[in-house]
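pasting input
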Amino acid sequence: MTAGGMTRAALASLVCAIALLAQEVEPKSGPMFFVSPGKGVDFILRNSPTSRKYLIETMPGGVALLDYNNDGLLDIFLVNAGHVYDPMSKPHNFDRHLPDYWNRLYRQNKDGSFTDVTVAAGLANAGDTNYGMGVAVGDYDNDGYPDIYVTNFGKNILYHNNGDGTFTDVTAKAGVAAGGWSVSAGFLDYDNDGKLDLFVTRYLDWSIEKSKTCGSESPTYCPPVEFPAISNILYHNRGDGTFEDVSVPSGIAAKKGHGLGVAFADYDGDGYTDIFVANDVTNQFLFHNNGDGTFTETGLDSGAALSSNGKMLSGMGVVFQDYDNDGQPDLLVTQLPHQPYVAYHNEGHGVFSAQELETGFGTLSGNASGWGVGLEDFDNDGWKDAFIVQGHVFDNVAKYDSSLSYRQPPLLAMNRNGHFEKADAGSTVPVAGRGAAFGDLNNDGWMDVVTTSLGERPQFFVNRGGKAHWLTITLRGTRSNRDGYGARVTVNGQLRFATATGSYLSSNDKRLHFGLGSSEYANVEITWPSGSHQKVASVKADHFIVIEEAAQP
Amino acid sequence: MTGCFLFIYLLLQPQSAEPTVPQEALVIMQAGADAESRHDLDAAISDFRRATELAPSSGMAFLRLGNAYIQKRVYSAAIAPLRKAVELIPGSIAAHQLLGFALLAQGYAAEAIPHLAAAKEYGALGIAQLQNNQPGDAVGNLQTALAKNPGDPDLLYYLSRAGTALSAESLDNLVSRSPDSARGHQALGQNHYAMKMYPEAKQEYAKAIALRPDLPGLRLELGQVYAAGSEWEKAEEQFRAEADLQPGSAEAAYLLGNALLQQGKMKEAAEELKRSDALRPDMPETLYALGRSAAVSDPALAEKALARVIEMEKDTPLAGEASFALAGIHRKQGKIEQATKDMQDFRRIQALHATANH
């Protein structure tokens, strides 16, 4: 028997890990989400703002959704910032040894509550000289357990997941501490060798000593152009637990910018993962993967560097997925007020066009400043919607412009055939939003969001569900990296690029979620990073499935 | 420079009103004049001061002493001898002129005004009136002075300031005398808008429109308030109402077209921008917006509009943006060579302005 070109043997590689039928929920008439602080999650993102306006204070903090213990439930890792003294004195100490400033790992319990397992997991104390920023998640050693990489102003940390609920700091051995001011990061397999590599964005050549304030009447944070630009870092995974900094030979280091967000996708379908860096007041960078270990920055020539009127973006968060279901990954970049969030539409042949106006973001952005961002199908209608965490950079912005505010509610925009329209996210509470991670927290087939806010507890946006159908796929690479990062997965004509990277400082549920609308069955097609293709036909909707890469091409 | 001019002017002044001056005083005054001509102002001041002591009823001695202080730019010391000079020779234009300058230089604008008026020194008089919150009078006198010295940058600067102040004063009058009129609310709306107090501005414009719904311009301005806050849907509503009220207004059509463009309503925007272009051809902003809005539906029209912007604007930032937009159109059409050339133009103009800004 064959199904969609698949043999029975190949079909056998499809494992139904969890088979939860979609709960029949009345159609939504109200907000999309129930919003709560998360039961058992007592984390507060302590950024410690000072009168000195050290720029790091306004930039944290990341959140990751991962299943660290492989129990089928998403757990949460939250990056804390640190204690900033007013003023800071040498030696710089952010008091990360104090529990208030620890990063936190919360294990999800079967009843949907969370338990703080930070100490037991060995993740307490992120180093007194490190001010926390973001997080990336990936199984870099293909042992089946997700590992955690934390970025800092200071030294970054790679935690290896031991598979027994504990982690080990392997930074020194791995050689991935970086240094300076790292921001977003992500795991990818840029050379398709089956081992996850690591990309790290860096914001500025900045230090406490170089810090200064800007603004005349009321001092505030300086714009990035006040400090020298800096290059990003690419680490190649040698496969023996160590990484090699290949930033220079790969061409990544040739471009200096003000990197904040990062996202991956194979935008030209050549089988190699490309890299987009959201830069603040610099051209956006689109690093085209040449397939030989090198990259060429093509942002300006491909049309993905500036806004539609040729202006530089204050790029902060970014997501790289196909929003108009034409089978090509597009980009959505968040930025500051009065600068619309820019949707770069992938026109094919390596060409993008900035369509912030056509997509509706010219109206939706308004006075808001966007950070964490996702393109997820929240109503399971087959179109990826946008969710953006918002909040201004300056805590005193209202003194400069009374039409602006530091704290802002998030933006939920529903995708109507490629045009986005504002919807009720369920929260009008303004916060200084920063990070956002997307995933299905309660395994009900409806995408949820966890966000971070400066000085506050995280917000859990739990989807109220509905009647439309869905399918969620976990990839298990064999010849490709085990996470399947870099795979192109098409379901009923919708494309998702397999990655946990995107948003701002954050790492998403690695499972691939598809809304199926009224379709009760789905046809799945996968192009793995190894180059192999797999098709799975007539998969019943409303299931979580695991697809393992066929052992032979 | 002014001092030299005045010195020459002084020498031409009739001295018929002068009482008999002792010979010794005349000799010392001549010595002072000689020192002055050698630019030895300290010696000149010493001599003229001695002359005022020897001939305390000589207005000319005080006038020369005041003038020497002014040449030395010690205006505070010039005021007392010049006051005495005016007292002794009230008909002396030079004495009034110099005293007016000295007072104005020290910030005593109100006191300077009658002296500058007596001397018919219209430029300085206008400046003094501006500083004394008399912008209406200042505008008239500065215009008179400019008629004599066209293009004088100082006079142009102060005339500009006086015009602004007069405008503000007029608005203040309007608001204080007719606060409940449509124009009063409009004026308040403008003030709030200028201060980025958008909610307050919206309230005032709404009141004005309620009072005089047919008043041209109100909706245009209210629309701009909404536009400043990126509330494009509401801006469109107001610009559309203005365009209905003034179908011949190219500005209303442009603003409506731009509001539609910002909302991604490309076809509607292109239609309205074409109408604006027909009403007032060759407006670069209109053509640029037309080029962007027509890029998908009518690329030929878009190319034509953007090319015209580049032709008219040469190397301005708008020309750069038009080149960038053209590159996008050509790239989508697969015309890579043209797109590359467009991007070269864009980068060249960008570099030009980056250098200028630097």
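fyi The interface with chain A takes residues 196-198, 228-233, 261-264, 266, 292, 296, 320-321, 323-325, 327-328, 331-332, 334, 340, 343, 346-347, 350 of chain B (CB under 8 Å).
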